[in-house]
Amino acid sequence: MPTAPALISVEHINLKHQNQYTLEKVSFELKQGDFITLIGPNGAGKSSLIKILLGLIKADSGSIWRANNLRIGYTPQHFSPNPFIPISVFDFLNLNQKVGVHFLEQTSALTGIEGLLNAQLKNLSGGELQRVLLTRALLHRPNVLILDEPAQNLDVNGQMQLYQLIQYIHKQQNCAVLMVSHDLHRVMRESTKVLCLYHHICCMGKPESILKDAQFNDLFAAQMDDLMATYKHHHNHYHKN
Amino acid sequence: MEDFIFRAVLASVGISIIAGSLGCFVIWKRMSYFSESISHSALLGVALGIVSGLGIHFGLILVGVVFSVLIVVLQQQKFLSNDAILGIFSHIALSLGIVVLAIIGGVNRDYFSLLFGDILSITNYDIVWVYSMLIIIATLLLFFWQRLLLLALDEELAKAEGLKHIFYPLLFMFMIAFAVSVSVQIVGVLLITSLLIIPPAIAKAFARTPTQMVFQSIFAALLAVIVGLSSSVLYDLATGPAIVITLGILFVFSQFFNFNLKHH
């Protein structure tokens, strides 16, 4: 079986902050068709790694290679649009990029925000905002989607719907995905590969093999108990109790 | 119409358009304290302009630009919070300006008109300056509108989409320095910031799009400046305060409208 072409590959990335390694010897490859979930405790260097991939900060050493045809769609971890600017969702999606109206409508229908186009950006809920951001990312016609904790601040139902949407886009648009997530439950089900980061890469592999990894279990001991408890009878709707 | 009033009106119209449009960004980017610092440095600009013989406009722009660069560079270092840096600059600039003005024999120098504006002082040369700055600022705003708006909306997203260059914060601060340099004579050092922030604050009650907000803000600035100027001439009031009080009244009314809009 021929291997899929790589889109981004990083090798031996080091990043130091005040004499401590934020990232140490990080190497991995994102290939076409991949759905990589990046997990790790807070402060593990996940966002720094993403910023390096995006070219927002430079690594102290190591190399990064990007495919010539690479088009990244990115949604940042924190997006709180300036509440003092009166701007509609439609205008925001068109801001600083040339988008055909037809393509914009098509993409909005895909992400389910076609009813929000005339709403003011500042009035949206967290879940709506994530969909709008995702739409903006998709308008770049990306072949890689980099999503930094897209489901934070959403309730369980909202998370479920957003993950399903991302999964759908991944398959339908043949778009590689690199997603930062804390949600182990979801990670185990959807990813083709899990990358567990704690300054260095603790382990990397298919979800099933990660579960058996000793380092992974050390890092996520508490959450794993929780995961195991819910894993056998997961819900697709939210119970108050 | 008296010549000096005609010149004052002409200058005011130009300044209203500058302040009304640029002011929206000052509000959006929460930079009223920055414009305050730059306007406080204006006194030093006037002093240096007189000392060097280059004239106050060159002095104002030079000092404004130097201060902008220093502030941006210091903010990048992150060794002090932004508001502390601005506070330090603001008051050092004001004090330096007063001291230098005193040293160069400002005995006959009228501080009051520098601090609060004086329409009698507007010359034809000043009007050329106002409209040159208007053309420069309007061109820059039109050309960079989309990028500046995205940066104001969410800096992190804008940077991730490629707008990470230090050019953009500098551009914005230079424009404020330009605006300040031509507004000093009409509204005075102490009140320039209000001409920048009150008109967009009024417009925000009505606007549904960023472009609407800019035009409504320009309209509010024009209205206040014309009313303020007239009452300044009629009742012999200082121009700056007359304009700012008019803006204040408009602001209070706009908030009633805002309140109505939200509760019906």
Architecture blueprint of SSEs:
The complex is a heterodimer of chains A (241) and B (264).
Chain A lengths: L5 E12 L2 E12 L3 E5 L6 H9 L6 E6 L5 E4 L13 H6 L6 H11 L14 H13 L5 E5 L7 H17 L3 E5 L3 H7 L2 E6 L1 E6 L1 H5 L2 H6 L1 H11 L10
Parallel strand pairs in A: 3-7, 3-8, 5-6, 6-7
Antiparallel strand pairs in A: 1-2, 1-4, 8-9
Helix pairs in contact in A: 3-4
Chain B lengths: L2 H26 L3 H9 L1 H11 L3 H22 L4 H22 L7 H6 L7 H30 L1 H6 L6 H21 L4 H12 L6 H26 L3 H25 L1
Helix pairs in contact in B: 1-7, 1-9, 1-10, 1-11, 2-5, 2-9, 2-10, 3-4, 3-5, 4-5, 4-9, 7-9, 10-11, 10-12, 11-12
State the fourth-level CATH superfamily of chain B: ABC transporter involved in vitamin B12 uptake, BtuC
Structural class designation of chain B: mainly alpha
Strand/helix succession of chain A? EEEHEEHHHEHEHEEHHH
Oligomer: heterodimer
Q: Any guess at the CATH architecture of chain A? A: 3-Layer(aba) Sandwich
Quickly name the level 1 CATH class of chain A.
Alpha Beta
CATH topology of chain A: Rossmann fold
Spatial order of strands in the largest sheet of chain A: 5-6-7-3-8-9
Count of domain modules of chain A: 1
Enumerate the spans of chain B where pLDDT stays under 50 for 5 or more consecutive residues. Answer: none
End-to-end CA span of chain B: 46 Å
> In CATH's first tier, which class of chain B applies?
Mainly Alpha
- Classify the helix fraction of chain B into a percent range: over 70%
Pair of chains with the largest interface and how many residues each contributes: A-B, 21 and 25 residues
Order of helices and strands of chain B: HHHHHHHHHHHH
What is the number of helices of chain A? 9
In percent, how much strand structure appears in the residues of chain B?
under 5%
Termini of chain A, distance in Å? Answer: 48 Å
Got a strand count of chain A? 9
